[in-house]
Specification:
The complex is a heterodimer.
Chain A lengths: L6 H11 L6 H8 L8 H24 L6 H18 L2 H15 L3 H35 L2
Chain B lengths: L11 E5 L3 H12 L4 E5 L2 H9 L6 E5 L7 H10 L6 E6 L5 H7 L3 E4 L4 H19 L1
Parallel strand pairs in B: 1-2, 1-3, 3-4, 4-5
Helix pairs in contact in B: 2-3, 3-4
The chains are: A mainly alpha, B alpha/beta.
InterPro entries (chain B): CheY-like_superfamily (IPR011006), Sig_transdc_resp-reg_receiver (IPR001789), ST_Response_Regulator (IPR052048)
Keywords (chain B): Phosphoprotein
Pfam family, one (chain B): Response_reg
């Protein structure tokens, strides 16, 4: 990826904000990339998507147990909440906040329902991220 | 304050964070201020570094981590006599500030961390470090 994001990618990123899936933290993330950290956005987004997928898998496993450890579930949700806040994935973050409330109440049905919402939001976000990275890659190839 | 105004020997920063995305973002921010960065994945790892004789000028410490939490690690680090190191508690919840400060942290910063807040903190640490070397 180029040292700074290409204008077309920044334009795509701006359109991502209008979807309601992202907030201004996402824009700040893009601005951190420069010559000394040319792959920062790719690394961060890739890490978020991989960790997030793993976390959702763990949550599915934890909530499938006969005896749910809500503290353990909350730990996983808290981790995803933090990661999503840092990359500006607003809807994922807000869903995690709702999830944590159900964990506090030890409400298994609430947790399961929110996990479904979380899964949809997360895959929507990771899909947008992947499209953005693909666009950047295509632009980089085109200017070689 | 811009990154170019930070001068002197590099600040040795320890990031104590179990979420890789946070550690990566904070590392990137701190690198812009020319910090030397070490990452510990939980409070216990951080304490072990001090027990091994490692020295740091500043610690950025998350709260909820496996094995040992941030506040617990901060208490132990201070108990080792590490009174000089600047400790910044970092967490997503504003109501967590008290647990950090009671443990011995100097500052609390909410997540996600703001780039323009980090610079002055690093500059202050650098000034103190360079003054103590004179």
């Amino acid at each position: 990826m180029a040292a700074t994001m290409k204008l077309s990618t920044l334009g795509y990123a701006a359109s991502m904000l209008s979807t309601g899936l992202f907030d201004e933290e996402f824009q700040k993330l893009l601005l951190l990339q420069n010559n000394s950290d040319p792959n920062f956005v790719t690394e961060t987004i890739t890490m978020f998507c991989e960790d997030g997928e793993q976390t959702i898998g763990e949550l599915t496993k934890q909530l499938g147990k006969q005896c749910v450890n809500f503290d353990e579930v909350a730990n996983f949700v808290h981790k995803l909440e933090g990661g999503s806040a840092s990359v500006g994935a607003k809807r994922v973050k807000n869903t995690c906040i709702q999830f944590l409330e159900f964990c506090k109440e030890k409400n298994r049905d609430g947790c399961l329902k929110t996990l479904d919402t979380l899964r949809v939001a997360f895959y929507e976000v990771s899909g947008k991220f992947k499209d953005m990275l693909q666009l950047e890659q295509q632009q980089a190839e085109a200017t070689k | 304050m811009t990154t170019s105004t930070v001068q002197g020997s590099p600040v040795k920063a320890l990031i104590v964070e179990d979420t890789p995305v946070h550690a990566l973002i904070l590392s990137t921010i701190l690198r812009k201020f020319h910090c030397e960065i070490t990452v510990a994945e939980n409070g216990n790892e951080a304490v072990q570094l001090f027990l091994e004789g490692k020295k740091f000028d500043i610690i950025f410490c998350d709260k909820e981590m496996p094995v040992m939490s941030g506040p617990e690690a901060i208490e132990k680090i201070r108990a080792l006599g590490e009174s000089h190191v600047k400790i910044v508690g970092v967490s997503a919840g504003y109501d967590l500030e008290q647990s950090f400060m009671s443990a011995g942290a100097d500052i609390f910063l909410p997540k996600p961390m703001k780039f323009d807040v980090v610079g002055p903190i690093i500059q202050e640490v650098m000034n103190k470090k360079n003054n103590s070397m004179v």
